[in-house]
Amino acid sequence: MLCKIINTKSVFGGKADIQKLVLDDQKEPQFLYRIIGEISGFVTGKSKFQRTDTETGEVQDQEWTKFAGDFIAINRGGRQFESVICFLPDYIGGPIKSAIEHEPGNAVQIGFDVFAMFSEKSATSYEFIAQPLRDQSAQEKVSSMLSGMPALPNNVKLALEHNKSKK
To answer: pTM of the prediction?
Structure first.
């Protein structure tokens, strides 16, 4: 189905829908949708809403990023959505914007499974989790690299000091 934009609300539902899902099962991340596509550009702006940082108490403007390109999203019910505009969870937009800024004219391919997880610290009672999608050959490369790595040190602090002394 063609739609104006792809975002969590248009593909899955609003805050109340997500809250119901995460409150019913507070232990496991809840799959909302899969998004794949190719980003060719973006626009940023400030929201009319502000957010209070729970740790510092500072009031901050909320920023948004609207990505342009070709996108397909599939929700947990199997319904497919297509659009040329996409909004992604905030924390995954930064690296994508950086890649586009450093390589103007090049498109960035994305693929994520987006989940919501219960969080007592969040004002909405949930946080988004975006799991990057990798094709099978990329996953095999990463698994191969991990299997060849030595075990993690028991004391990370000592390992860091050891690395400093080598320089």
So the answer is: 0.73
